[in-house]
Each structure stands twice: as C-alpha cells, then as structure tokens.
Amino acid sequence: MISLKKIIAAWKILGPGLMFAGAAVGVSHLVQSTRAGANYGFELVWVLILANVLKYPFMEYGPRYACATGHSLIEGYKKIGNWALILYLIFTIGSMFAIQAAVTIVTAGLFGSIFNLHISPVEISAFLLIISMIILGLGHYSALDKIIKVVIVTLAISTIIAVVFALNLGFFDQNAVSGQFNWQNHVDILFLIAFVGWMPAPIDVSVWHSLWSVAKEDQLGKRPSLRHTLIDFNIGYIGAAFLGICFLTLGALVMFGSGEKLSADGTVFASQLIAMYTASIGPWAYSLIAIAALTTMFSTVITCLDAYPRVLRKSTELLFPKTLLISKYYRRLYWVWIIVIVAGTVLLLGYLSGTMRFMVDLATTISFVTAPVLAFINFKVITHNHVPENARPKMWLRIYSWLGLVFLTLFSIIFIIWEFIV
C-alpha cells in the first residue's frame, strides 16, 4: 500500500510537468480544441492525436536535458553553436508579443464576461498583466508552482465531469463524425494549421520546461532522477493531450449542429464557452466552471509572462558573457524583459483590439511554421556528446524523432508553398 508520506513526496516533486500542462491547457484547448469540435464535430480528433504524438519527443527533451546536465536547453543551444541560440532568440522575439497577446486577450474575455465588465478588453488585459507581474515579483517560481498544481487539477476534474454529463444527456449529433472538413477550403486549412501549431503547445515550451526543471532542482535542493523527471513530464503531457480531446468533445456534443458559431470577440466567446459547460452539467455549475476556466487562462498568462523573461535573460547572459548584465544587474534584466513584453503586448492588442480569433490564429500559425526548426535543434542538443550517454535517447526514440521531424517539416513546407507560392 502506498503511504501518505510517499504521496506527499511525489506531489512535491511534481511541478514542471504540471506547469507545462498549465501553459498548454489554455488557448490551444479552451479556444482551438473547442472550435474544432464546434465547427467540425469529431472529424479532427485524429489531427489532435497526431499532433501530440509527433511533438512528444521534442517536448520530452527539455526536462531530459535539464535532468542530465543541470542546465536548461538554452545552454544546450549555446553548446552546439551560437547559430542555434541566435535562431531560437529570433523566433522567440518574433513571436512572443503575439503569443502573450493571444493568451491575455482570451483571459480578458473571460474576465469581462464573468464579472460583466463594460470596459475594453485591452484595459482588462493591461490590468491582468500588471497583476501577473506583482504575483511573479512576490513569489516567483514557488508561487507559480503552487498555483498551477491547484488550477490544473481543478480544471481537469470539472472538464471531465462536463464531458460525462454531455455524453449522458445525448447531445451527440450523428453528423458530427465526418464530412464537415473541406480539404479544398482555404479557411478550413488555415484553421487546421493554427490548430496543430499549439496542440498541445508550441515546441518553444520545451525550453521553458527545462528552465522550470532547473528552478525546481534549486527549490528541492537536489536533482530528481531521470525516471521521476520523465514521470512528471508524462503526467503533464498526456494530461494535456487528454484534456484537448475533452474540449473537442464538448464542442462537438454541445455546439456542433446547433447553428451557433463561436464568436471572434473574446467576451462573447467566453460566455459561449461557459454556457457549454452549464448546458452539460447544469446552471448550478456556473460558478465552478467560471472559476476553473478563468484561473486556467490566468495561470497561462502568468506562465508565459514568467517564461519569456527567463529565456531572454539567460540568452542575454550566454550571448554577452562579458557585460555587466550578468553580475549585479542580472536580476534586474528579468524585470526589464517583463516590462518590454507587457508594453509590447498592450500595444499590439491596442492596435488589433477586438480580433481575438485573428490574434490566436496568428500566434498558433507562427508556432506551426517554426516547429520543425526548433524540433531539429532540440534533437541535436540531446544527442550531442556533452550530454551523458545514459541520458541520451535510445534508438527507438531517435527513430521516433526522425519520423516526427520528417512529418513536421513536410507539413510546414506544404503550408508555405500552398499559402505563399501557389
């Protein structure tokens, strides 16, 4: 029998994997998976599963590398050459405002809908970003670690309950199985690309995961074994994939065939999302679902806002080792980058206010196109000779990785040719 002491010890070790789930279970699930089910029924379930399968090894290499070396993937990029680190930095700076804006505007929509606020989503977004900065300033990693554990478990339980109730109430439309997605329709293809881009999360998150793993080691005062590290990762990854299927199922059962379309406006979309839950479980569950959805998206905002300054600060340290930025100003650099991200996000939202769907599709499409490049760099790092041999991937995982690289590269090339050349 498993003792309470062992359960508590295992719970303490868990953290980076659940933070991965906290970053993943946000826009990709609440927005994109729900849209997939609402618009196409169950026809894109195979796409959701395939995306999770193809990205798995490249996501796993983040915590694997951190456990094996005690460093983040950013140091690994530096080890294989400045080209890898600079390329990653270019991708990060090129996408961070769109990604932070996407997760923040969805959260603002939920916040405005739940509290019936009559102010602009941009103002709500600015408020949420400032609150996130305060939380990170007060607690930093330890606060984030504790928040995510509670939030992700709460959302998982409420989502599973909602799906079970929806299945029991028989909302399933037989036409939801197939025949809705048109492979010759430009709009459908663009949605598919955006859907895959963040399912279950952009590959950038593997770098974040490695940084959180290093921070977790500092918090614990020891380095967890590779076995415990991968268990933590698998719980978060498989859990995020499963919840993606749950959200798609809710969209298919509750909204598909109803004639109602998910709105591009963040506040209206939030109302529709919560209504899906209450239609399945009952009006009594409104408060529970509202809190779960809001806290999930808010945790994603905090997670992203913590991750970007971490990777940018570490990248600055490695690229400019002789500057004063890595001495007494190193801590301040984290806050410099946070301020830059918040300011850039608010400006972007102000310019593109009221276009939640465009913002989400833009961010997810960027992640789709850059995925094969980041996947290749992760593979090159984890198989490099500076990684302890016992931590390098086995032959089956290497073959798995190459198959994933081939598919991700082909998908990206086909999309670029189809979108920009044909």
| Contiguous helical run count | 15
What structural class is derived from the secondary structure elements? mainly alpha
What's the Cα radius of gyration? Answer: 21 Å
Distance between the termini: 62 Å
Biggest sheet architecture: none
Average pLDDT for all residues: 82
User: Total number of β-strand segments?
Assistant: 0
Provide an overview of this structure:
Helix 7 packs across helix 13. The chain has 422 residues and is an all-alpha fold.
Task: Jot down its keywords.
15 helices; mainly alpha; 422 residues; 0% strand
Quick structural overview:
The chain contains 15 helices and no strands. The chain has helices at residues 4-13, 16-24, 27-40, 45-69, 73-80, 82-114, 121-169, 186-197, 205-220, 226-255, 266-281, 286-319, 330-351, 356-382, 395-421.
Can you lay out the helices and strands and say which pair or pack?
Blueprint: H1 4-13, H2 16-24, H3 27-40, H4 45-69, H5 73-80, H6 82-114, H7 121-169, H8 186-197, H9 205-220, H10 226-255, H11 266-281, H12 286-319, H13 330-351, H14 356-382, H15 395-421
Helix pairs in contact: 2-7, 2-9, 2-10, 2-12, 3-10, 4-9, 4-10, 4-14, 4-15, 5-6, 5-14, 6-7, 6-11, 6-12, 6-13, 6-14, 7-10, 7-11, 7-12, 7-13, 8-14, 10-11, 11-12, 12-13, 14-15
